[in-house]
Amino acid sequence: MEQTGSVKVPDGKLVTVTATYEDTIESVTITGDFFLEPPEARERLERVIEGRPTDVPKQELVDAIETVDAELIGFSAAHLAEAVREAIDR
Fold it and tell me: What domain of life does the UniProt record list for this protein's source (predicted)?
């Protein structure tokens, strides 16, 4: 199954996650109007989310996202985790 979840961050940024999953999150694509430093960190963020069970708690996602050496500009690890949960909870 493939679903998309989005979170509108209070300052106006949008974080969108498209997830393909069955019992585990098979693939994730992160898009939106935010910035990452370095830009190639997006792929590393996607990889730390992939492979997790679909019932993964939001806090576990936040913890995994925070292991990636990246500056999230205009959103937080919690916003990204929320978008992932929205995509797989649909």
Answer: Archaea
pLDDT < 50: residue spans in the chain: none
pTM for the full predicted model? 0.96
Helices (runs of H) and strands (runs of E) counted in the chain: 3, 5
Q: Cα–Cα distances in Å, from 25 out to 35, 38, 39, 50, 82?
A: 24, 24, 23, 5, 14
Q: What phi and psi, each to the nearest 5 degrees, are found at residue 66? A: -70, -10
Domains and CATH numbers, the chain: 2-89 (3.30.390.50)
Q: What whole-number distance in Å separates Cα of residue 25 and Cα of residue 60? A: 14
Q: How high is the pLDDT of residue 10?
A: 87
d(CA 60, CA 8): 21
Query: 27 with 20: CB under 8 angstroms?
Result: yes
Mean pLDDT of the chain: 96
